[in-house]
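Box 4.2: Ligand-aware structure prediction
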Amino acid sequence: TIILGLESSCDETAAALVTADGRILAHRLATQEEAHRPYGGVVPEIAARAHVEALSPLIEAALADAKMTLADVDVIAATAGPGLIGGVMVGLVTGKALAHAAGKPLVAVNHLEGHALSPRLADRTLQFPYLLLLVSGGHCQLLHVKGPGDYARLATTIDDAAGEAFDKTAKLLGLGYPGGPLIEKAAAMGNPKAVPLPRPLAGTAEPHFSFAGLKSAVMRAVQSGHYATEDIAASFQQAVIDCLVDRTRRALGESAGVTALVVAGGVAANQAIRAALEDLAAAHDLPFVAPPLWLCTDNAAMIAWAGAERYAAGMVDDLSVPARPRWPLDPAAEKARGAGV
Ligand code: ATP
Ligand code: MG
Ligand code: FE
């Protein structure tokens, strides 16, 4: 079984071909970072137009890389949300058109499920259920991943996402966009103890994350003029690590029976964060799984793979399936906490 995956929910356009047993036959990606850089963040209208231009050539290129045609593809998987609605519609409508024209089944994939299942594409021995720290540009959550479409959310952020905190801090420091990799680079040359910064919610009995207070503290440190950029970056990154480790340690106490501690999403590309979580897993005698860096940030291989897992579980979608700007993995937990959290 060969799955074509399409991704267009944010500022990466991507197409990939993956087999049901987890072989990546081709993966192509075009990033729009240059187009958005002057604005310091993703501009939805620019993103949607760029996805329209980039997607068809990427699909052609991926098929050519695999020496295949659409006739060789068995399943079409496209991101159907959450994300910027204009971009999501570009990928989903393209997926629907291909599925209709070629007479293939369509799987509408939740982008977050793409991130959540990507560790199983990277490591085919990883079994359900696992404890997942999902840290990305728009999300910061702890989840029990029990199977495709089967998630229990233990924690989420009450304000900013982890990646958002990296991006906003990079902007405050004048480092540029996207901020995560630039902060990581600057932090490597700084002293993580130089700037006293808070660890919001760390040590509390409640399960959630918070990063807004950290961002404000960084702003005050910048405005004070007392600190070097590298020292602020290093201290900020250390504060984020301490928060992520503290909250994940708490969640491990509610995770009897999990097979592994797993991290995924764009922020999981950060080496210092990976190292800290690996230590935490070792202290709990659990295997630690993190996908390779390119599979952490947005890509279509993870969408094809989530499509493969859903298809194998009998989940296919009608061509009327909608694009969704919001789409929680655990709707019950979202409802219990109220909209926005
Ligand atoms: P979501 O997946 O929540 O819809 P998204 O798709 O925009 O959001 P991803 O592509 O998964 O997010 O991740 C992008 C985020 O990851 C950005 O905020 C970026 O700054 C962050 N990021 C990327 N590399 C690193 C890194 N090395 N260190 C820290 N953060 C990073
Ligand atoms: Mg991106
Ligand atoms: Fe993402």
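In the box above, the bound molecule is adenosine-5'-triphosphate. Strands lie at 2-7, 12-19, 24-31, 75-81, 106-110, 130-135, 140-147, 150-155, 261-264, 288-289.
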